[in-house]
Amino acid sequence: MRNRYFAVFTAVLAAALYGISIPVSKLLLVEISPTFMAALLYLGAGFGMLLVNIVRTLRNTVRLEAKISRQELPYIAGTIALDIAAPILLMVGLKTTAATSASLLNNFEIVTTSLIALLVFKEAVGRRMWVAIILISFSTIILSVQDFSNLNFSIGSIFIILAAVCWGFENNFTRMLSIKDPLQIVVVKGLGSGTGALIIAILFKELSNSLISIVYALLLGFVAYGLSIYFYISAQRELGAARTCAYYAAAPFIGVILSWVILQEMVSGSFLMALTIMLVGSYLAITETHCHIHAHLGAIHEHRHNHSDNHHDHVHQHELGIEHNHAHAHERLTHDHEHLPDLHHKHTH
């Protein structure tokens, strides 16, 4: 339970850091094109976390995390491609959409992440989570429709929802990587996605000569993308893709608060209705529990772990509760306890 509470804390912290991005990006898009903005955000994340990694190496700290191996390369390639497309779609949508609505529309990521986790990666999603998904979906529809009498959809909101779909797939790919070093993952994702978006910006001649705006965008990328993704991946290894994304629902609310303060945007009645429905859906997602008899198949893998979680009973010199990293084997085990779809609970239902 202590690990779960810490994972929840890191997921909410990731949400808080990402919540900064939309209102601040809205301001920077005055000087920077959407594609170039997306490139700067990920390059800021990649270079910023690379600097953190260099500092960690120079301090000669013991490496507790497992490095990315050749086995994870397909998922790395997938996350980079999706991370190129998603922020570009988001920035295009943000150009014509209020930052408050865009912040809440981003919560559609919870729906897509959960559906993909269930249908493609066979992650367990219970009734309570399904109700939460339906409520969050309905709230995004309220925000997306400009005129219910004619059902005219906002073009900007459609781009934001498409970005959420891309991030839904990306979240599930990242879950498959969460067993490895989160810092290394962020560096690879940031530099790879940022470089890809930068090439697109150069080809379409969408670069900006506003040096101060570029610096701000890089700093925003380090905080709102680099640090946020790092904490998000750390939470995913304990909570799974769908549930981590549910806790991440705090991000839009933080973005909305900042939009009120920074941009002084007006709040409509439909916005307040959507906010209320989304709060209820987010609460149901956060409070969902899962418990049943389940079997662990035998496996050999490498990741950060300790021997106090009832899943690592191999014998060596490390004491109970002391975290370390090495390749280790799991024997087949059947037991009953409350659990989440973390890296040791990928069983089918």
Account of the protein in words:
By secondary structure, the protein is mainly alpha-helical. It folds into two domains: 2-62 and 70-292, no CATH class; 298-331, no CATH class. It is 64% helix and 9% strand. It is built from 13 helices and six strands. The strands form three sheets. A two-stranded antiparallel sheet has the order 1-2. Strand 1 (145-147) and strand 2 (152-153) form a beta hairpin. Helix 1 packs antiparallel against helix 10, helix 7 runs antiparallel to helix 13 (269-286) and helix 10 (211-239) crosses helix 11. The protein is globular and about 60 Å long. The mean pLDDT is 79.
Q: Looking at the structure, what is the overall shape?
A: globular
- What is the chain-wise order of helices and strands? HHHHHHHEEHHHHHHEEEE
Termini separation comes to 23 Å
Give the count of helical stretches. Answer: 13
Number of strand elements = 6
Q: Helix share of residues?
A: 55-70%
If you average the pLDDT, what whole number results?
79
Structural key phrases:
two-stranded antiparallel ribbon; 64% helix; 6 strands; 349 residues; two-stranded antiparallel sheet
Give the gist of this structure:
With 349 residues, this protein is mainly α.
Secondary-structure map with pairings?
Blueprint: H1 2-19, H2 21-28, H3 34-58, H4 73-95, H5 99-105, H6 108-119, H7 127-144, E1 145-147, E2 152-153, H8 155-177, H9 182-203, H10 211-239, H11 241-247, H12 250-263, H13 269-286, E3 291-296, E4 299-305, E5 324-330, E6 333-338
Antiparallel strand pairs: 1-2, 3-6, 4-5
